[in-house]
């Protein structure tokens, strides 16, 4: 049986409920080995799984093993945004970009600030936003709504 104990710090714990992952099957061990290989890289990681299978736990473990461990870990449920606000929430917006945008606001990409941004339920995003998300992942820069200036 494999017992993986996560860091004791509440700031680094994977969730309030989970402070250790316990498993003994070969597939889980292979997943852990893969996580340890990918964590040191700067590559974007796609984590696939049904609801409740521990995708966020895996993302947090990758983050804790990476050079980004001392930077923020930001978890965002993309299914929680209304279609009218999702672009501004993810990418940020400039003052006056839309009715009610009285001040400029950083989006979730900027909030991650060199750390890890975990986007859950990206399949719930409108297709146009998924295309913009792909561009952000490829170019490693974001453009706020109402701006033409790229932010790395």
From TrEMBL:
GO terms for molecular function: ATP binding; DNA binding. The keyword Nucleotide-binding applies. InterPro entries: AAA+_ATPase, P-loop_NTPase, Sigma_54_int, Sigma_54_int_dom_ATP-bd_1, Sigma_54_int_dom_ATP-bd_2. The keyword Transit peptide does not apply. GO terms for biological process: regulation of DNA-templated transcription. This is AAA domain-containing protein. The lineage of its organism: Bacteria, Pseudomonadati, Pseudomonadota, Gammaproteobacteria, Pseudomonadales. Residues 21-152 form the Sigma-54 factor interaction domain. Gene3D superfamilies: P-loop containing nucleotide triphosphate hydrolases. Keywords: ATP-binding, DNA-binding, Nucleotide-binding, Transcription, Transcription regulation.
């Amino acid at each position: 049986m494999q017992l993986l104990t996560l860091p004791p710090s509440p700031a680094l714990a994977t969730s309030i409920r989970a402070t250790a992952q316990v498993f003994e099957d070969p597939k889980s061990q292979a997943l852990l080995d893969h996580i340890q290989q990918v964590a040191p890289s700067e590559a974007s990681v796609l984590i696939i799984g049904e609801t409740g299978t521990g995708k966020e736990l895996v993302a947090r473990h990758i983050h804790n093993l990476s050079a980004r461990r001392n930077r923020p870990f930001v978890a965002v449920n993309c299914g929680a945004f209304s279609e009218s606000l999702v672009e501004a929430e993810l990418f940020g917006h400039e003052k006056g970009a839309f009715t009610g945008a009285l001040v400029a606001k950083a989006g979730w990409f900027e909030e991650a600030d060199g750390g890890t941004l975990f986007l859950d339920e990206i399949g719930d995003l409108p297709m146009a936003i998924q295309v913009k998300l792909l561009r952000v992942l490829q170019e490693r820069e974001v453009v706020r709504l109402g701006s033409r200036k790229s932010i790395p």
